Amino acid sequence: MICLPALSHRLTQVVRIMTCVSAVWLFASCDTMNRNATATHALEPSMRSPAPRFVPREALVKFKDGVSPERIASILRNNRVDVIAEIKRGRLYHVRILDDRSVESAITQLTSYQEIEYAEPNYRYETQK
Predict the structure, then answer these.
(1) Looking at domain 54-123, does it have CATH number 3.40.50.880?
(2) Which of 27, 34, 51, 119 is the most buried (most CB within 10 A)?
(3) pTM here?
């Protein structure tokens, strides 16, 4: 007999993998088509505003093995963060900072708990051409 939660988890993994492969393929094909194109309306590099290195008011928080869901909820609530997504079955959380603290300040506060393996900003990554 097939366990429905396990099947659902497998299907989710397959969809994620297919999405990533499709995105890479699309990026590669668009990049190949645009290599010989000239930018007619591109801004000068000095006129562009630098993109922030990470998403404002967002962080990733990873809890150590064995931390109860109740304790996780308590820590997140006490630190005034809201869960955007649970990434690794109760261990890794994508969170939004609910008050006006800086990301760095929130991370410092979160990492003071022994139950947290690490907390880091939600970094932005860009491919280089």
Answers:
(1) no
(2) 119
(3) 0.58
